[in-house]
Amino acid sequence: MSENNSAVKATKTIHDMTTGSPAKLIVQFMIPMFLGNIFQQFYNVADSIIAGQFLGVRALAAIGSTGSLMFFVTGWLNGLSSGFAILVSQWFGAKQYDRMRHYVAMSVYLALGFALLMTIGFGFANEPILRLMNYSDQIMPDVKAYMGIIYAGLIVTAAYNSLAAFLRALGDSKSPLYFLIISAVINVALDVAFIIFGGMGVEGCAYATVIAQGISAVLCLIYIIKKFPILHLKKEDFKISLSAWGRLLALGIPMALQFSITAIGTIIVQGAINVYGENAMAGFSAASKLQNIIMTVFVAFGATIATYVGQNRGAGKMDRVRQGVRCTQFMIWGYSIFAMVLVFFFGRYMTWLFINPSETAVVSAAVTYFRMVFWCYPFLGSIFLYRNTLQGLGYGLVPMLGGVFELIARAAIVYIVSGRASFAGVCLADPAAWISALIPLVPYYFYIMRKTNQ
């Protein structure tokens, strides 16, 4: 198939975001992204719900408390694939499809290589990491078993993240959603089969997660083969290019570090929470899972603006970049107000999804966390906007610096209050981190826009 015919056929499926109303394009792209994020969150949430309801508080504490560690591990792979996809979106926006495919091929090498190294490294370091996080001997076996299976499945996590990122870079946010819906349903079915009927315990949750992610990766690959001739790679696309690897890593590594640095901060907080016992761990885990669902709108806006900015930056349309950022900021503020009201008035009842209402100590811990953080949601949403905008423009260092500010703020709060204050004091680490992250991001965005004008 010729290049022109391939591009024409591809445009029936993908979306060029360099023309049309910025607000309309962003909303249309964001909604499938939001739904996709919901179903991606559903993996760990489903594990926590079924474990909490059928295996008890200890199982909920074990699985739920691994969220920060899983974010550290999978966030690195997600950051890499997102960074790689920015260059793919820029070459697509510039209509240079040969170079786009070459960068896709180089991304595949890097993503799979990192996944294999991480599987080996984290497999050996599994128990030492958990010891550093203050897990007790009673809960250690469950957590170690769960994370060991997750580490073994990182290759399928990397495969799905990369394939979905390529689709989104070309403006297709719907297809990854459909595959996630299918795999999320499979995940729940396997959770039920392995835990309720198979008696496998927390290991069943981990196996269900890895198998479901593997299915979503296979579906993405089949769809690309059938529907995206513009992404069909040839032998010459896989010719190793150190310069291409360098450019990919220049964006991918800072984004991966940004995810991981943020995750390290949450691991520090989780370690401080673990000191307060299983009820605090379970309550914090339940509240965090609910908050992650609420955050999916912010994450969707961030991923959307990265693709939007990347395509328009590649096309040289910086005025459209400004318009897109401005309207997205207003939408984030509006949703933040809704989320604040929801959490303040209904947070207690939402925790019942994870734990029986009779577990009053667990519910009380979850409500305490919500009371400490809900007011800071506008700052949290703005992080995703400005961080992803800068990444879409091709700047990776300052977004990573925002993650460093988050880490320092969380570590400082934990150091100040841990052992000297109540559980509520530790919860203040999140608002401090969200506000701190914006310190480098917002000024640098306006500096770049002003520099572009000049």
Automatic annotation (TrEMBL):
UniProt GO molecular function: antiporter activity; xenobiotic transmembrane transporter activity
Classification via Pfam families: MatE
InterPro entries reported for this sequence: MATE_fam, MdtK-like, Membrane_Transporter-Flippase
The keyword Transport is assigned to this record: yes
Membrane-spanning ranges: 69-92, 104-125, 145-170, 177-200, 206-225, 246-273, 293-311, 332-355, 361-386, 393-417, 423-447
Entry keyword annotation includes Transmembrane: yes
Principal localisation: membrane
CC per GO annotation: plasma membrane
Compartments, as annotated in UniProt: Cell membrane
Keywords assigned by UniProt, alphabetized: Cell membrane, Membrane, Transmembrane, Transmembrane helix, Transport
Topology versus the membrane: Multi-pass membrane protein
NCBIfam families reported in the protein's UniProt record: matE
Protein name per UniProt: MATE efflux family protein
Organism: [Ruminococcus] lactaris ATCC 29176
